[in-house]
Amino acid sequence: MAPTPVFFYSHGSTMMLGEQSSSADFWKQCGDEALAHNIKGVIMMGAHWDATSDRLEVAMNPSPGKSPVAYVHPSKYVNYKLEPDLPTGNRVLAMLQDAGFNAHANDKFEWIHDTYLILIRMFPEKCPPTTIISMNARFDPHFHMKVGSTVRPLRNEGYLIIGTGGAVHNLYRNRWAPMLKYRDNFAQETPPEKWALEFRQSVEDCFTQNRGPALRRAVTRLMKHPQYRDAHATDDHFVSACFVSGAAGDWEDEEQEKGRLGAETWELTNMCNSQFMLGSWPGSRTAAATA
Ligand SMILES: [Fe+2]
After folding, report:
1. Domain residue spans in the chain?
2. pLDDT tens digits for range 213-233
């Protein structure tokens, strides 16, 4: 089977769950297309769960709870039933261990909004079987790229691979006042600052102008970009982009269409929530793929 597309989503603030946006519309559209193509399940790396030392963990809690989502009415998420995919979780664990990772099952992990916000938006009717892989707290770009390349073969079986983090995501440099005072997360009292615009453009260029191993090199190299530390005060919202580049950056992926910026939503003045699709659904590929 031809490989499924891969997605890098910027989940933004918690209010992206409760408020309408073009990003939310794009997530829903991606979910609808995934269901139309009968995906087997979802494999995700988020931005809020990391394992220490050299470990990786896979979520294997059969009935996980949800951590609360600030600034969002509970009716938007409390009744959504999560579907941990334990059989696929065991397969992913074995694949990671065979590739040399110190990977372990975590049967206590409670899911966090970085992953279930996206699942609710993509699949509001029903959560598909989902496997979550932790980050590693050393935040090595090449390590996370390799995690993505290790699970990449599952794309050929109909699994959807998603990284959820942020294109520009520095909580220390956001303008929080309109959200805290008025619940207005989309307020733009001033334009985004130059460093945010610069880094956002570089993220778009890397994802949309590179295919195959060049994509892996471009995305992992972004962590050395002059504005990287301005755009990401911490690394936790970027290494899932490296994971995505591993899952979408094989030589075989050179034959796919270039990555596409599907939607983008600015929040809190300086946080840029860019949404990328890498590859395309079988049957919808165009002549551009071979250009
Ligand atoms: Fe987050």
Report:
1. 6-278
2. 999 999 999 999 999 999 999
Q: For the residues of 89-105, what is the DSSP string, one character each?
A: HHHHHHHHHHTT-EEEE
- Whether the CB-CB separation of 222 and 238 falls below 8 Å is answered with yes
In the block, tokens 């972004």 appear at 222
Q: Is the dihedral of CA 109, 115, 116, 119 positive or negative?
A: negative
- The predicted-structure confidence for 246-286, as pLDDT tens digits, reads as follows 999 999 999 888 999 999 999 999 999 999 999 999 877 55
CATH of the structural domain 6-278, one choice from 3.10.129.10, 3.30.470.20, 3.40.640.10, 3.40.830.10 = 3.40.830.10
117 alpha carbon to ligand 1 midpoint, in Å?
10
Ligand 1 centroid to 181 CA: how many Å?
21
Ligand 1 mean position, distance from CA 12 (Å): 6
